[in-house]
Structure formats: C-alpha cells, structure tokens
Amino acid sequence: GRRGGMVALNTAGLTAARAGATVATKGSASVIAGAIGPAGWAAMAGEFAGGAVGEALGGETGKEIGKCGGAVGTGAAAGALIGGPVGAAAGAAVGAAGYGIGKGVEAIFGLFEGEKGGIGCDSGHIKEWEMFEFLFVEGSDKVAILTHHNGYATSRPDCGFYQAPHVKEWEMFTVVEAGCGQVAFKNHHGKYLSSRDDGGIGAAPHVKKWERHIIVPTQVAGKVAIKSHHGKYWIAHQP
For residues 110 and 221, what is the distance between their CA atoms, to the nearest angstrom? Predict the structure, then answer.
C-alpha cells in the first residue's frame, strides 16, 4: 500500500544518507556518521507520531505540520544524544530529507490512484458516472460532493481532483455564486475548482471562465450533473 511504499523509500533514503556520511573521513564526519542511523529511525517514528497528533489537533493541515515537525525534531534529538550539536544538525537534516522523500512517494502513489478514481470534465453525456449529490456538512456552510461510486470529491494541495472514502477538510467545498446562473467551488486551500480544456480538473486562485459551472438537474432525485464552460460534464471514474 501507500504507507508501505513510503516507509520503504524513506528507509532507502536514510540508508543512502548514512552511507554518504560514512565515506567522509575528516572533521565532524565520524560524528555525523554515528548519529545518522539512529537519528534516521527516530525521525521516521517521530514523523508518524507527529502526524497523528497534528491530525487530531488540526485536521489535514495539522497532520502535515506534525509530520514534518516530528521528523525534524526527533531526528535532531536523537542525533544530539550521540553527537552533540553536530549530531543534532545531522539528525534534523535527515528528518527533513525523510519527510521530503515521503511526500514524494505520496505524490507518486496519488497519481496512480488518480488514474483509477479521478474526476474529470470530458464527458459529452449524462449517465451514472456523471451524476453527483451535494451533502451539506453539519455545522458549516460547506458541501461534500458524493459520486456514483460512493466516494467524495477531494481537492488536494497539488490541485489533483480525486475521490476519497471520507469527508475531511479536503472534501469540503464552498459554493460561490458566479453570475448568470453559474457557480464556483472554493476548496479548503482557498482556490477554485477549474475545469480545463484538456478534460482535467485543477484549482485556480481566481474565478474566470474555467472556474464557472452550471448545475444541471437529472432524472434521478437528489442528483445533479456539473457542466463546465467547455460544454462538457464532470465524470467520476471507477476507483
């Protein structure tokens, strides 16, 4: 799964960093080499722990802050125990590198997931996959967008538009009046869903033609189709 791949590549990155430090032979290299192994493993544990705490306190945004802070902080602490200030610096660097590698892996796996469960805007008709249901999020003015496959539209920070099995921050949208019977969808990251002319859906910081959509009633009660500026309909592909 994604988590297993992330751990594997994190481990590979830490191993490579340790090997690179070991080949150095002068100055503080020996201290760095001694600190980087334990610090690397501590940073990985800190990343998972920090992510869990951050998610509980601050949702998806808190999770990422917690993961990065946990990786750097615990890496530095473990490095300091072994190599003092130099070891702390090395441990912090390894923690930051490990977090970066992990995010890269998540992005790669996200692309594969998008191929299976992506939402595009290139359909010329309205059938089951082009039907969506708006669900109001209790205690807010936001909506979740439920697909035919029982997934929820999720707008990621990298502007990817896919389906998720839950409703959290990334799955909540504000419907904004855009004039002439059209609406725009503002995501949690402060951007507007943008139906591009290549059939993809991204996010933009403004509301122009590509960010305006028409809500089209369907013959199924409670479900609608979403029509883009290009005359095409949103379609949720099979996850």
Answer: 33
**Which of 52-56, 134-138, 182-186 has the lowest average pLDDT?**
52-56
Residues forming beta bridges with residue 175, ordered by sequence position: 185
> Which of 4-13, 24-33, 154-163, 170-179 ranks highest by mean pLDDT?
170-179
The Cα 205–Cα 195 span in angstroms is 13
Backbone phi, psi, residue 134, to 5°: -90, 125
Contact call for residues 46 and 66 (beta carbons, < 8 A): no
Q: Which residues of 185-214 are buried (b: 16+ CB within 10 A; e: fewer)?
A: bbbbbebbbbbbeeebbbbeeebeebbbbb
Model confidence at 56, pLDDT cuts 50, 70, 90, reads low
Identify whether the C-beta of residue 62 lies closer than 8 Å to the C-beta of residue 54: yes
